[in-house]
Amino acid sequence: MIILGVDPGLADTGWGVVGFDGQHYWPVSYGTIKTSPKESQQKRVYTIAEDLLSLASKHNASVVSMEDIFFTKNITSAIPVAKVIGAALHAFSTVSIPVYLYSPLEVKMAVTGMGRAEKLQVQEMVKILLKLKDIPKPDHAADALADCICYCTHNLTRSLSR
Questions:
Q1: Distance from C-alpha of 66 to C-alpha of 107, rounded to nearest angstrom
Q2: Burial class of 74 by CB neighbour count within 10 A (0 to 12, 13 to 18, 19+)
Q3: Distance in angstroms (rounded) separating the CA atoms of residues 62 and 73
Q4: Which end of the chain is more exposed for a tag (fewer CB within 10 A), N or C?
Q5: Helix count (H) and strand count (E) of the chain?
Q6: Which helix (H) or strand (E) is 101 found in, with range?
Q7: Distance (Å, rounded) from C-alpha 162 to C-alpha 120?
Q8: Position 106 pLDDT exceeds 80
Q9: Which of 68-72, 76-80, 138-142 has the lowest average pLDDT?
Q10: How far is CA 115 from CA 16, 18, 48, 122, in A?
Q11: Predicted pLDDT at 161
Q12: Domains in the chain, please, with CATH?
């Protein structure tokens, strides 16, 4: 199975592709989609959605695992991220790729076993689980790879409970 992980953001959307055979993970590719604040928000959101579709097609992803919106105090900073998530959900639905959304707490718990893990702890576990030489850079790409691992952990748990 090939999973496309997405860490949504308007300026930088992290993406990661991971293979999983039910027991082992392997990294396929990762990176970020960058957009310019000089472009309209509409163009930026559209570009991100189209690039994500292209990545899913290129890597033959069978599922998408995406970090869901999270905000504490400043809702205005969360709104552009919510727009990216909505555009991605729409784009993936047009090609019938299922999308699973996970909270940051769920991702941290699935990757490290601790819902309140620090960012560096999550990145270190991504490196270990995917047998990478270094922590993936940039941070948004490492977060997207963590989203992939989260899906695998949740999917494995679901299949064991049946």
A1: 10
A2: exposed
A3: 35
A4: C
A5: 5, 5
A6: strand 99-102
A7: 34
A8: yes
A9: 68-72
A10: 21, 22, 28, 10
A11: 53
A12: 2-160 (3.30.420.10)
